[in-house]
Specification:
It comes from Halopelagius inordinatus. InterPro entries: IsoPropMal-DH-like_dom (IPR024084). The structure is a single chain. This protein is α/β, with parallel strands linked by helices. Helices cover 44% and strands 20% of the residues. β1, α1 and β2 form a beta-alpha-beta unit. α5 packs across α6. Bound molecules: adenosine-5'-triphosphate (ATP) and magnesium ion.
Length: 326
Amino acid sequence: MTEEIVVIPGDGIGREVVPAAVSVLEAVGDFEFVEADAGDAVEAETGEALPAETYELAASADATLFGAAGETAADVILPLRTAVDSFVNVRPAKAYPGVDALRPETDLVFLRENTEGVYAGHEDRLSEDLSTLTRVVTTSASERLAEFACDYVEDRAYDGFSVAHKANVMRETDGRFRDAVVSVADDRGVETDEVLMDAFATRVCLDPTQFDVVVCPNLAGDVLSDLAAGLVGGLGLLPSANIGPDRALFEPVHGTAPDIAGEGVANPSATIVSAAMLLEYLGYDDEGRAVRDAVESVLADGPRTPDLGGDASTEDVTHAVLERLD
Ligand code: ATP
Ligand code: MG
């Protein structure tokens, strides 16, 4: 049976790196690609950044590969995450041999709560002087994340996971999050250690090898995983997955990179590794592994795009990855 993959290049370098990743997927499997529009360009044309048809496709496909959207990013990616009912954002941050990194020993995976926290809260302007924000934390969402985290570390033979929080100050909300996550892990016999999120920021910079898998509330996961991106040498390398109960959406962590869009020099690695995560999600573990190995080998020996100090094009790098897959 041919599996269907929805492909949404979006804007900017999304239109360059997504086709690169699709050519890699074509090389390792028999997939049917359904391309859909989203972002600034389609909004300019139709008035809608996320056409209903695109939403429906993402909401019914097993897997979607997304590039990036420009000004309309919030109108595109937030509903797309809802379309797949994504409760966890998986963000690996791994340094690669041969790539300049502040901390070359970094190999982390953030499991970020993807539905609540301050991003789901209500912001209100109460007076000329006062604005407030309500933060949403439920036991059910925290438990769902924890179950996923337990499966994740069991499947990959990690010793356990860390829980980053600030429950010493936000006792009600982060306290609920921490209690729910730790209690699920205890029931499952999965080891956890707790780390205050501010202390985590310092400790991970000083020695990232102290951590493997880090479970975080929404905002903390957003900020701390970007911090880790700095440790491993840049945005062009970081993949991500938005996982829901029945389907998932994969995207590079970077945006549209307007400063280099259209020049054909964007680094396709983040999107190609996102495609490897997609393969593994669909059960093609060997193919996913092969794609990761090919990317790793190209990052080690070149060719490299300008963001990594080289002068190769997106196409050169994609070609090299395809060659090493053979
Ligand atoms: P957006 O608003 O869409 O996020 P941005 O201006 O924040 O756009 P990003 O895509 O987040 O741009 O990128 C930030 C910087 O990192 C830019 O200088 C961009 O060129 C660089 N960058 C991001 N992704 C890549 C990539 N895949 N290859 C090379 N450089 C990249
Ligand atoms: Mg950006």
